[in-house]
Amino acid sequence: ALPISEFEPFLQMSSESAQILKSYLSITVGHVLPAWIRYFDIDGDQEVTLQEFVQALEKLKFKENAEEFFRNIDEDDSGYLTLYEVDEKCADQWAAFRHWAAATFTSEDDMIAKLRGTILQLDGDRRRHPSRDAEPGNPATQSFDKDQFLENAPRY
């Protein structure tokens, strides 16, 4: 078995590359998680291939060698990155939120309805629930604003 000191240079490269990437994503997008979801893990499979990584960094106008960064961050040489390899704390928070949402809501519509509250809107002579009776193609009926989220999220 090799002593741990043999691995330290690789761990340091991984850590430095991940830190540079985290900083860049925080500056360009505002936070690692929305950047990860919007640009890297577009298909939601929790794994980012080299091709996905390179495409994401091109969209974000990252000037460094994307392939080298990928290899440095891919600690286990799996050929893909996970959010844990980029930002462990963020990955833990994202996993906890996803677990909470799956345990709390039965569907995306259920989540929207519950976080919106039980606001009923009058529509002529019949009552209409904003998310259950949403009009197709009208995203306004399928969303909620920050105040609604903050008001209703603590209930669950």
Question: How would you characterize the overall build of this protein?
Answer:
By secondary structure, the protein is mainly alpha-helical. 54% of the residues lie in helices and 6% in strands. It is built from 8 helices and 4 strands; from the N terminus they run H-H-E-H-H-E-H-H-H-E-E-H. The strands form 2 sheets. The protein has a two-stranded antiparallel sheet. Strands 3-4 form a two-stranded antiparallel ribbon. Helix 1 crosses helix 4. 17% of the residues are buried.
Q: Kindly state the mean pLDDT as a whole number? A: 77
What count of helical segments does DSSP give? Answer: 8
H and E string: HHEHHEHHHEEH
Percentage of β-strand residues? 5-15%
**Residue runs with pLDDT of under 50 for 5 or more positions:** 1-12, 118-127
Radius of gyration: 21 Å
How would you classify the helix and strand content by structural class? mainly alpha
Spatial gap, N to C terminus: 49 Å
Write out the strand line-up for the largest beta sheet, numbering strands in chain order.
1-2
The main pleated sheet reads as: 2 strands, antiparallel
Which percent bin holds the helix content? 40-55%
Molecular shape = elongated
Total beta strands: 4
List keywords for this structure.
156 residues; mainly alpha; two-stranded antiparallel ribbon; two-stranded antiparallel sheet; 8 helices; disordered N terminus
